[in-house]
Design brief:
The protein has 171 residues and is of the alpha/beta class. 29% of the residues lie in helices and 33% in strands. The chain has a nine-stranded mixed β-sheet, with helices on one face. A two-stranded antiparallel ribbon has the order 1-2. α3 (122-138) links the parallel β9 and β10. α2 (73-88) runs parallel beside α3 (122-138). The chain is elongated and about 75 Å long. It starts with a helix and ends with a helix.
Length: 171
């Protein structure tokens, strides 16, 4: 039973497998499939529990991209889940999230906005920024990148007029 369980568990889309004996001559196997949360790095997927798996055939419908060092996958998934709840309240969708080579937290949204939060107090910085985001949106300009790594504030890079026209689909 143990060898069968190990062989089935080694399959990429298998999350968990349970095998038991049924008297007199049967084995009962229950298999739970991996449910991907997001793409991980270039060639993997990650589930809600922060487990990386690398199947040959990936689901192309998964748009979310998470990244960082493999040994930090649990931290990336947990922090993504924490901030995703905040941004969903504001009708925003995260397209990419993770840590860069400098270990700064970076979040990108499906509208093209990119926020660099830094290493320290990233959740607090993002929460404070999201409170002023409606004021920024009311200015009529569209923010392209935001840098929250400053102690006393943040910087905004505005989208060019040509980028706004392209993104809005207007001519």
């Amino acid at each position: 039973i143990h060898r069968i369980q190990e062989a089935v568990q080694a399959l990429p889309w298998v999350h968990q497998v349970y095998i038991s004996r049924r008297w007199p001559d049967k084995l009962v196997m229950r298999v739970a499939e991996q449910v991907p949360l997001a793409n991980w790095q270039e060639n993997g997927l990650v589930n809600n529990e922060g487990e990386i798996f690398r199947p040959e055939n990936r689901d192309e419908k998964i748009k979310l991209q998470l990244y960082g060092a493999d040994d930090e996958v649990l931290k990336v998934v947990a922090f993504y889940q924490q901030i995703n709840a905040q941004v969903l309240e504001r009708n925003m969708t995260i397209s990419s999230f993770g840590r860069d080579l400098h270990r700064d937290w970076i979040v990108e949204f499906d509208d093209g906005l990119r926020i660099t939060m830094g290493r320290d107090n990233a959740a607090q910085k993002l929460t404070m920024f999201l409170t002023v985001l409606p004021s920024i949106a009311a200015s009529g300009k569209r923010a392209k990148t935001v840098d929250l790594r400053y102690e006393q504030g943040f910087s905004v890079r505005w989208a060019d007029v040509s980028e706004e026209v392209k993104n809005d689909g207007a001519a």
